[in-house]
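Tokens as discussed.
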């Protein structure tokens, strides 16, 4: 092998190693998010709620008590979406199932993926909030200038502490970089940086919706008293 070939091999090896390190860094950065969420769910830090659908508990509604539930929506840099809620606050009895609509609008001229990450205040109320159906369970896809309305169906347990009269549910939008995630996944599956370079990114047009097993008919909408 002459010196030119040795230089070429050396450069190729350096490029492969550099790409492998970069992809590994991206994969690690995305892994931090679910790890952080798990930690928050276990410790109750930041009022993080479980990102899985829960079952309705058929218990007697406590009509002697009203809980004021507030909804706050926030955007984040890098995602040209607007998120609105049907009502900003509503009164709900413990044990009652309630539903409220959230609307997502993509204000850009291109397709985007995003996710709404919830948190609850006070954090102690997290254990008493059951989300029957929620858009936060999955990533959402919006086409250019598309608008999508999805309901949140929830229930407060009857054993909610007596000193909690107001619960604030905050949803923050975050962009989902699917191309980077696909690259990391391809690398981990194939174990080769060259495969990452040659494999085309998949961008499925299929939209992820909230739990489709739930009946979202307006006729069955459980009403909290809207304020």
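Sequence:
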């Amino acid at each position: 092998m002459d010196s030119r070939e040795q230089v070429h091999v050396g450069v190729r090896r350096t490029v492969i190693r550099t790409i492998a390190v970069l992809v590994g860094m991206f994969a690690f950065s995305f892994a931090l998010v679910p790890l952080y969420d798990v930690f928050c769910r276990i410790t109750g830090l930041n009022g993080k709620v479980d990102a899985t659908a829960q079952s309705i508990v058929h218990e007697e509604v406590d009509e002697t008590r009203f809980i004021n539930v507030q909804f706050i929506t926030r955007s984040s840099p890098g995602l040209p979406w607007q998120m609105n809620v049907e009502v900003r606050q509503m009164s709900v009895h413990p044990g009652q199932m309630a539903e409220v609509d959230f609307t997502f609008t993509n204000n850009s001229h291109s397709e985007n993926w995003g996710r709404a990450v919830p948190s609850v205040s006070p954090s102690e109320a997290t254990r008493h909030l059951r989300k029957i159906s929620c858009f936060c369970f999955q990533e959402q896809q919006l086409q250019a200038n598309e608008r999508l309305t999805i309901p949140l169906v929830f229930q407060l347990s009857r054993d909610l502490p007596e000193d909690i009269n107001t619960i604030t549910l905050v949803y923050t939008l975050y962009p989902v970089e699917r191309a980077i995630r696909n690259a990391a996944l391809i690398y981990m599956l194939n174990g080769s940086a060259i495969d990452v370079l040659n494999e085309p990114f998949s961008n499925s047009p299929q939209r992820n919706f909230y739990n489709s097993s739930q009946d979202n008919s307006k006729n069955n909408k459980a009403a909290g008293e809207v304020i």
